[in-house]
Specification:
Length: 208
């Protein structure tokens, strides 16, 4: 597991707490699904933080924005829902709140790096040693948001539709009609970015 953390840290850019937690989330959910490899499922990951954890999941699960299998809902929480798109079976893995008040966590934070090694890096390797049942809550859940369907590469679909304002090529799904002419989102009158009330956007529920 130490070597996997080094590889994941190299992908992310550095080794730290979030990378270690993301790595352990992936290994914990493998046990929940009862699989040896993520190639056995068509995994989609909904990550509840935009910091560090998504990179670990991208590296290990091979979920990423480009294959429509990595969704980031930045609720500022150390939690991820892993979904098998083929069966819609899903597990939410979250860090237990009590771990941050524990003696073990207190001792981990006391570890200091030497000879140019960052504190976070050494502490990350200690996080790997925490048993899953001490670190995580793993729950089977039902997903309430649409899971992106598998699609062919969108680059192959460009060159057919163009915005009447900026002239750029636009995928058909993203075009809007304005005064009878095709317009892209950023040139349309509608706001390109809409704020989401994340308190009301609960996307999962525990299984009965």
């Amino acid at each position: 597991m130490d070597e996997l953390l080094r590889e994941t840290g190299k992908f992310h850019g550095e080794i730290g707490h979030g990378v270690a937690i993301g790595l352990k989330m992936c290994l914990a959910v493998k046990k929940a699904f009862g699989i040896e490899s993520f190639k056995e499922i068509e995994g989609v990951s909904i990550v509840e933080t935009s910091r560090c954890v998504p990179d670990a999941i991208q590296y290990i699960v091979h979920s990423c924005a480009g294959n429509r299998r990595l969704i980031i809902k930045d609720y500022g929480k150390l939690a991820t829902t892993f979904i098998d798109r083929k069966t819609m079976k899903a597990y939410r893995v979250s860090v237990k709140p009590d771990i941050f008040k524990s003696k073990r966590w207190e001792e981990i934070l006391k570890i200091k790096g030497e000879s140019g090694v960052k504190d976070d890096e050494l502490q990350a390797f200690e996080i790997l040693k925490i048993p899953d049942d001490e670190l995580f809550i793993v729950k089977e859940v039902k997903v309430r948001v649409p899971v992106p369907a598998k699609r062919p590469c969108e680059c192959l679909m460009h060159g057919k539709y163009f915005c009447s304002v900026c002239g750029e090529s636009v995928a058909e799904r993203a075009l809007k009609l304005q005064n009878g002419s095709p317009v892209c989102v950023t040139c349309s009158d509608a706001e390109a970015v809409k704020c989401i009330n994340i308190e009301k956007e609960r996307y999962w529920e525990p299984c009965a």
